[in-house]
Design brief:
Layout (H helix, E strand, L loop, with lengths): L1 E6 L7 H15 L3 E6 L8 E2 L6 H13 L4 E5 L1 H11 L6 E6 L2 H4 L8 H10 L2 E4 L2 H8 L7 E3 L20 E5 L8 H14 L4 E5 L5 H13 L6 E5 L3 H10 L2 E3 L14 H8 L4 E4 L4 H4 L6 E4 L4 H13 L1 H17 L2 H14 L1
Parallel strand pairs: 1-2, 1-4, 2-3, 4-5, 5-6, 6-7, 8-9, 8-11, 9-10, 11-12, 12-13
Helix pairs in contact: 1-14, 2-3, 3-5, 7-12, 10-13
């Protein structure tokens, strides 16, 4: 088969790009031909020709010439790529798959400028796939379709050691871009409460700092909570540096919050942490409910619950037996969500739509 992918980027430094890269290269390594048409000129494989806004129509015209000899068009998110794919495919009739990743699978359904086009795209596609049950339920609130199913992202867990090493330094780890949806304004004061019980505790935050207003707000928040010396903002790190942090942390935390139809579509970082044997703390009411098995390899708390998050941190950090049990469970959970299984399920869809 030849599959043409429409995506934002395949830069493995962010969750979206990593998901796209893993899927596309997994399909390619299974013996199929792939072509990547993308929006971001990220320095990786692919042709950067896709645009947003009114640019979806010019993008669709450019895409048409690339899809005439393919078997499958796979758009990696509803907006704008699903819309581009449907328009480009008009009169050509190739099989089309749209994967709803997260915010941009749903938020445009609430915008009068894009809602009709995105609903039309979902209805015209041969199959809509979402990366979590939450994303699926949010789409179905706005458009009634039967051709929808869930395939959770997978992970190459072999990149990580099975059990993390407990070094003398006690620290909690978060990984994700510094933006409001990631909920650092909840995890920082929760960490401050936990630190009152565990004085030598530290907090390391890895992720891009492009939203400077939010970054500056978080630094002030750390000062207000008197943890500016123990909460470290590390920015983006090389893969090996990040891997070492996963392997030596005591606990992984990401307290994502929903706002204005922006939400955590899945949370691939939870699987990365699990593969390194970390117990995790996440939030309910979003895609994290698919990436964390609450009570098994981690704890799911209510969104915006500072005290509940702090209690979860303290409980796991002070109960070594429970932490080690969840550590082992995390590795098993990561193995059950491996990348090869994800790729196989997509190949089955390509063959059967």
């Amino acid at each position: 088969m030849k599959i043409v992918y429409l995506t934002h980027d395949i830069n493995p430094k962010d969750g979206w790009g990593r998901y796209a890269s893993d899927l596309i290269h997994g399909v390619k390594n299974s013996g199929h031909d792939v072509l990547i048409l993308k929006e971001q000129d990220d320095g990786f494989e692919g042709i950067p020709i896709l645009k947003r806004g009114l640019g979806v129509f010019s993008s669709a015209l450019k895409v048409r010439k690339f899809i005439k000899n393919c078997d499958i068009i796979h758009a990696l998110d509803g907006y704008p790529y699903g819309i581009v794919g449907v328009i480009a495919n008009f009169g050509i009739g190739k099989k089309l798959v749209i994967t709803g990743v997260g915010t941009y699978a749903v938020e445009p359904l609430y915008n009068f400028k894009t809602a009709s086009l995105l609903k039309w795209a979902y209805r015209k596609s041969g199959r809509v796939v979402t990366i979590s049950n939450f994303t699926k339920s949010e789409i179905l609130k706005k458009v009634k379709i039967n051709n929808i199913k869930v395939i959770n992202p997978g992970l190459d867990f072999r990149k990580f050691n099975r059990l993390h090493l407990e070094i003398s330094e006690k620290f909690i780890l978060s990984v994700g871009a510094l933006k409001k949806r990631k909920g650092y304004h909840i995890s920082i004061p929760a960490f401050a409460l936990a630190k009152k019980e565990i004085p030598n505790l530290k907090y390391k935050i890895v992720g891009s700092q492009e939203d400077r207003n939010y970054f500056n707000y978080l630094k002030e928040l750390a000062k207000e909570n008197r943890v500016e010396d123990s909460a470290e903002f590390l920015g983006n790190l090389a893969d090996e540096e990040l891997k070492k942090l996963y392997q030596t942390a005591r606990l992984f935390v990401l307290t994502s919050v929903n706002h204005s139809h922006h939400f955590e579509g899945f949370g691939l970082v939870f699987l990365e942490a699990a593969a390194a044997g970390l117990p995790v703390i996440g939030t309910k009411g979003n895609g994290i409910e698919d990436s964390v098995k609450g009570g098994y390899n981690g704890i799911l708390v209510e969104q915006n619950d500072i005290e509940g998050t702090a209690r979860a941190m303290i409980g796991l950090l002070n109960d070594k037996d429970r932490r080690l049990t969840m550590s082992k469970n995390s590795y098993e959970w990561a193995k059950s969500n491996d990348m090869d299984s994800m790729v196989k399920r997509y190949l089955d869809i390509y063959k059967n739509i």
